[in-house]
Design goal:
mainly alpha, 6 helices
Length: 136
Amino acid sequence: MSRVINPDSAGKERTHLTKAIVLTVRQLARQTEIDDLTKDMAAFIALALFRVDATIDISVQAWEKRGYWVKADKFRMEWLWSGLLADKMKEAIIKDDWATVALLSAQIGQKLGKIQIAEHHRLGTPWVGAYKKLVE
């Protein structure tokens, strides 16, 4: 019997989410006023960071099974910021603290600064309706 390969791995999901976050941070930086679109973008960043944080343990499980504890801990430490900034972003959005949202967006942009997005990407507008999901 052959082994089963999962084409939808946590790493691929994390890559897709980080590209979407970078795209959203860039679009959010272009906003001049706070409207529904701005709220959706900020909420999407928070939700996507929560999902990125959830993929970390899934990725690390294979290393831990093989006894690569140092590699697993290093990977967790590299991505520790995602959960922390997601919590701060969610709190700032709910409190309508847009100065903090701007500051956090800049920090997230720095963390994901090495990620490149093609000019003709297929990401679309993943932030549509995110504010409603965050508030629920």
